Amino acid sequence: MPDAHSFGVDPITCYSWNKDQTQLALSVNNNEVQIQNFANGKWSLKNTLTDHTQRVTGIDWASKSNRIVTCAADRNAYVWVQESGKWSPTLVVLGITRAATCVKWSPMENKFAVGSGNRCVAVCSYDKENNWWTSKKIKKPIRSTVTCLDWHPNNYLIACGSTDFKARVYSAYIKEVDEKPAPSNWGTTNNFANLMGEFSSEAGGWVHGISFSASGNHLAWVAHDSSICVVDANHGLKLTIVKTEYLPFMDVIWINESSIIVAGYGCVPMRFNYKDSLTFVGKLDDADSKQQPGKVSAMAQFKAMDSRAATDVETTLNSTHQNTIVQLSVFAGGKERCTKLSSVGTDGQIVIWDIK
Tens digit of pLDDT for each residue in 127-137? Predict the structure, then answer.
């Protein structure tokens, strides 16, 4: 059974776990970041980070260094460091004129990337002399807002999705920070902002979520046209596209080298397997099993109400989440072998799922 935790009625827009999953950083559709602690079966608020002045759009908690990076619609990002139980912000020089939309630490945690409405990805590294984080921009040929990011496990490549219907892979190698990268199946990465690949689905739709597999050889993304796409770097960047019958997905994550989980407006996470092609496996939250005996369908209820001119309608869904799922994260294991997955939704819930 899924393990659901409610944080009120406000939508959770973004969240991130600490290393041992005992603490959680989240934002409930406002300018604050809550640090919640789980102990004795209960959640308690430990800290509130309030330096942002507009809605927080991205949070990522680094597992090795225990630093939190946040970004918001106020065009700012902060790196938070814990000292004597309190979180102190470090300035990030983003140099953008539109909202920041997403943020992600690199695997080595010596860099992070910020997507924005400025049609660019800002790759940030620490400047010790000035005690702040500076940024280098990836711009061309992005033509609209960057909505999602994910790092390749080699720490040098970054994938981004945007509202120009494209998914792209770039080199994020910074000479002053990184060692010289080894060649990969995606190509040579010696030049910063070098475009390694550009892809789109057939119909076109805003890209909502993107994810590299544990090996970095597979890249998956989901778009607003209800499509799921996978690029296989082992086979010459072969692109597989599946246009599904479901409502659009908002996020995607690899749970092993051959399986992904997607979720979104359908309020239920779904599993697909990839082996040269994508195949539907099933739903993590089976609504059919929750259907009460003798309960009629929504269409039958509507017809009955219409015939009686009734206005009362049942709005409870036969699923754990009661509204759109906006983000998926690995809770236990890793992308190479995930055993538990967590999801958040605009229903104010965080749900932990067992992966069989």
Answer: 999 999 999 99
